[in-house]
Specification:
This protein has 15 helices and 16 strands. By secondary structure, the chain is of the alpha+beta class. It binds one RNA strand through helix 3, strand 6, strand 10, strand 11 and helix 11.
RNA sequence: GUGAACGUAGCUCAGUUCGGUAGAGCUCUGGAUUGUGGCUCCAGCGGUCGCGGGUUCAAAUCCCGUCGUUCACCCCA
């Protein structure tokens, strides 16, 4: 071995045993989204590369070094979707959704692709659940979007998440702020680490993220965006905060929260989980009032979030033990001799047609082996069929929990199993 | 892209220090008086010790490279 082909680096297989919890999370999410009025959107897994380079921003890490970009056979540059907002915005424009009643509220469950170095909670292909609301610049919808995510976490029992919020300002107030911050950083360049020197050039606000103590000390004295917001942005931020309080959503103000996409304006936010380790962000998002226009649509405000399904699952596994698991079959059919196998096969067909989940042996196992399988399958009943039962046109129903057996007429088997199933509820 | 640790049966791992031609538990299959599970006992299946090269009479064990995993940086979900 060793010549074995394995899943590509940073990817993983989702096995049957992993499906139940995942489906449950996605199910709860879709229910929450429905309640808040979001409709599902699906877009292609790849897009023209310029959608991302233009939409997400040339200066972002995603565009600079993390995209799965390839040329198709027609010579077009395509990119596997690294994030969901730009494709959603593209679809909004392409389908003329600005002519519908605003806001247009969309949700998605999509795989995302980023060429990154994998680590705990970080993959090259991962899934995100997300929503986008286009067309309204009301701060109430910022608060609602955050409320949707908070509701999702609450309903799947993901406790211990902390919400951080910040405002990035708008095209009126941010440029001035960034200029003054950059000036400040240049003044203190000698005290900063080389990485921060680079950050100051590309995205000065990133320097707030630096872990180096010297940098942090310098940054303590740096001008803050919160203090430079224009009156409109300050008011917007204030209203968002008030409506978070109204929904009983606790949050902390974090002026250092700078998210990785260039399109954010005004509100940005991120939920972090203490149980996740270094990749502590479970979900985040914000407002992007200039994005739609940037990709060639009419000027349209928007706000949304993305939350990582793998990180939700990881956090759930570390904080809860009562997670959903796969449903066992209702009955496991056992053939006592070779001639009964056909009979059992026919019975399986009948019961399955009637809607029951039925298992039976296809490995030529001994009776003992079949019983073992019946037990392992978790089915509440084994239905046993042999010479005796064939003669009587019956089936022996065995209740696995007690071992109690009873021969019943074959035509009553379905009924008995269904009844017993209902009793247990 | 950078750094560190690790890579032995499907899974969890021992064996690597002081090189001598592969082990355990779990899983899986069969059996413990003929048509029956969960506990126990017995037996069996299953690995060219990630891959490639080097040192050596001899390497899972030492050296180099490579791929992968994990954790961290970076960044993000």
């Amino acid at each position: 071995m060793g010549e074995r082909i394995t899943a590509p680096k940073g990817t993983y297989d989702i096995l049957p045993a992993d499906q139940a919890v995942r489906r449950w999370v996605i199910g709860v999410a879709s229910e929450v989204f429905r309640r808040y009025g979001y409709g599902r959107l699906d877009t292609p897994m790849f897009e023209e590369t310029r959608l991302f380079s233009r939409g997400v921003g040339e200066s972002t890490d995603i565009v600079r070094k993390e995209m799965y970009t390839f040329e198709d056979l027609g010579g077009r540059s395509m990119t596997l979707r690294p994030e969901g907002t730009a494709p959603a915005a593209r679809a909004y424009v392409e389908h003329g959704m600005h002519t519908r009643p605003q806001p247009v509220k969309l949700w998605y469950h999509w795989p995302m692709f980023r060429y990154e170095s994998p680590q705990s909670g970080r993959y090259r292909q991962h899934y995100q659940l997300g929503i986008e609301a286009f067309g309204s610049e009301s701060p109430l919808i910022d608060a609602e979007v955050i409320g949707v995510l908070a509701a999702l976490y609450r309903e799947i029992g993901l406790a211990q998440v902390e919400l951080r919020i910040n405002s990035m300002g708008c095209r009126e107030c941010r440029p001035g702020y960034v200029a003054s911050l950059r000036a400040f950083l240049e003044e203190h360049a000698v005290e900063l680490c080389p990485e921060c020197w680079e950050r100051a050039r590309i995205n000065p606000m990133r320097t707030f993220d630096c872990k180096v103590r010297g940098c942090r000390l310098v940054l303590e004295g740096a001008p803050r965006l919160t203090g430079s917001l224009c009156p409109a942005c300050a008011e917007h931020h204030d209203v968002v905060r008030r409506h978070l309080v109204m929904q009983d959503i606790p949050f902390v103000e974090d002026h250092r929260l700078v998210r990785g996409m260039d399109y954010y304006t005004r509100t940005t936010f991120e939920f972090q989980s203490a149980v996740l380790g270094a990749q502590s962000g479970v979900g985040g998002g914000g407002r992007y009032d200039d994005l739609v226009e940037t990709i060639g649509g009419p000027p349209t405000p928007g706000v949304g979030f993305g939350t990582g399904v793998e990180r939700i699952l990881l956090a759930l596994e570390r904080s809860r033990s009562d997670l959903p698991s796969a449903q066992p079959p209702s009955v496991y059919l056992v053939a006592l001799d070779e001639t009964s196998r056909s009979e059992v096969f026919a019975l399986a067909h009948e019961l399955r047609t009637a809607g029951l989940a039925v298992e039976l042996d296809h490995m030529g196992r001994s009776v003992k082996g079949q019983m073992k399988q019946a037990s392992r399958s978790g089915a509440p009943f084994a239905a046993i069929l042999g010479e005796q039962e064939r003669a009587d046109a019956g089936v022996t129903l065995k209740r696995m929990s007690t071992g109690e057996e009873q021969q019943v007429p074959r035509i009553e088997v379905l009924e008995r199993i269904v009844e017993a199933g209902e009793d247990e509820r």
